Fold each of these.
Amino acid sequence: MLDQSRTPLLDAIKKFQEADPAYFRIPGHRFDRGADEKARKLLGRKAFCADLTEAEGLDDLHQPEGVIYQAEALAADLFGSDCCWFLVNGTTCGNEAMILASVREGEKILVPRNAHKSVLMGLVLSGAIPVWMQPEYLESWDISGAVRPEMVEQALEQDPEIRAVFLVSPTYYGICSDIRRIAEICHAHGVPLLVDEAHGTHLYFSESCPGGAAALGADLCSQSTHKTLGSLTQSSMLHWKSSLVSRNRVEESLKLVMSTSPSYLLMASLDGARHQMAEEGKKLVLQAENLAEKARELLREIPGISVLTEENAHSRGKICLDPLRVVFRAESPRIRGYQLQDRLFAEGQVSTELADENNVVAVITWGNTEEDIRRLAEAADEIVSMTPDITGNSYQTAEKRQIFSFRIPEQVMTPRQAWMSQSKACYLEMAEGQICAESVIPYPPGIPILYPGERVTKEAAEAVQFCREHRLHLHGCADTTLRTLQVVTAYEGKEGGKLG
């Protein structure tokens, strides 16, 4: 193991600052002397002084040979990969690069239907053909569950043209798939496993979960270091450990999707976060797990509040939950998930990560305190106690399940072709048979009804109508009222209705 006490990039930035050079490079603020006074007072002089470029001794992210190369090598060593790249465009660019490096135009990639929208960007850039699989649906919580190993195995056996498998683990709700077993299945079929573990960087240091994707056999995994560790927002890492995907191809793909003006603040924070986890990662994650468990205990004691557990998820098989995610809801239909989140902040000054139609998600780290946990529980208790005791749902989840259980629509065009097509707004009532030019993704459960390039079926149109009638929260569509859908009119001179 490398000397994990080192912080090569942080040290190089400090050394450059101490030299106090006459500076004639970008950025223009010149160690804060040219910065706005209000910004300087809020952000602090030290932030501006560390906001540098590829100056003397500071290396180059896109051709690292010095301190950035050393910092990335230390990260690879800690997380158990053969190579690590620092990302300054978030895990979004990591997901894009993984797809670009693994599949080419016209090749197939197996993708869960609840994948992040950055996967759409990767599909558009690569021209790859998605082969969709539905993750398990946890009806009692109205959220997407895990991708089961047998789903992947069945898909690979049915379609030998699949060239890569993409997974999301853990999900935004903290549900982890069996990465080790899925990796074994992928490799037995000669295809690489790509994992979006944006929310799972801390799992490498947890004693209560199997571990992180790089340690469990994934060929490539992207992780948002900033989400659960101590780096700055937008800083991420991409890990490679594969004989199936070219390392050089990954590097070239990153150059296509990542900024040529990388932030040294972001990269330095990655170096620091790696150092912190190397020094005391297991202790810090255990501390956070204890806080999260305390939050679950206090919330469970509140009449009218339910908390997601492995038992009440009602999965078809055993699942593993991220120990730092606290997913909870009010049982009263008078308090929807969005309303609960809004009231937690308005009435208790408690800010949570995510809300959907039913649930609220709180992310706990070692940066939280017992006082934070107490305030969360007290605010939730106050809100539900002040609301009339009516149980049940504003609409039946079973009805929603029936509406959304239709077959995935036919992929008439690749997402890239649909993206490049001419399109127009079409009234929903007239959209059946047309080719969708956008995504329609209701939250929850975060699974698209329609994806670019798919034929609008009667069942899909009915599901969209259901979303409109129940005013579900939607991502991806231009008209959030859902009166219209964007549909393809022509691609390479062909009429939209004649494609496929």
Note: The first strand starts at residue 83 and ends at 87.
Amino acid sequence: MVAARRLAPGEVADFRAMNALFADVFEEPENYAEKPPTDEYANEWLSNRDNVAILAEADRKPVGALAGYILPKFEQARSEGFIFDLAVLESHRRQGAATAMIAEMRRISREAGAWTVFVQADIFPEDEPAQALYRKLSHSEITALHFDIAP
């Protein structure tokens, strides 16, 4: 059975497990593993209520991870939940891990006064299973372009 839970301040080892899982599943160690944040930074990140780290675990081992944010809005006194990254080990896909993590993100977002939770899905063939899951759980689908702009 897969269970999803939000990481709390002080759970730095699980924060590191989340990043290791992202590095493995996305095959991007340069982004998730090669320059790990200090324990102090990780704990500070976990202590910010607008940052969301969720682990899916089976037999007390991480099998999925979700990193997201609660975005306070300016146009109304409300927020939006944003799923930034979501990954599940290939060995545990289609067993409810992603759905459980999204359900936890939805709960956290509701408690924060969010009116929606959004997620960006890439349009590559390997992302079609994720797109299918998001379609199943969503009330609308918006096609948009994403641009990376150098700071």
Note: Helices lie at 12-26, 29-32, 39-47, 97-111, 128-137.
Amino acid sequence: MSYEEETVDGKPFYVTYTALEGEADYSHFIEVPEDHYPIPPRLDIDPWEEAERAKRASKGAFVCVLMPCTKIDATGTRTGRGGGWYDQFLSVVPTAWMRVCICDSSQFSAEALERKPWDQTVDRIGVIDQSTNTITWHETHSRGSDFDLVSL
């Protein structure tokens, strides 16, 4: 089955986040339909339980997980708030789910970040330039998938 066959109107099912202070807001650049799964902006939620809820909500569709970062490099290695929440979440969702990190240009590192054995890489990076209010997309191919064929 192709990406287009697994999507609704050519768009994936989205798992989203609410941008907190210091996190890039994707909402000006990606039109997320009402039918999506929002991860609550709380530190006390269990990543494995959220993964199960997101899997049920997606109903087998092609999924795009949007996530924030504090820093990310061109190979898709990201750092968050230090708790490993997204690493745990991504470790139990289907590997076919596309992982997209949205960041401000100041959070995009030209130098490689240290990748720990448990780090889960991302497939696509959206770098927001605040001065022009534009986003530039970078494909990482870190997991060997060709997600650049997917339109967000």
Note: The two ends are 18 Å apart (CA to CA).
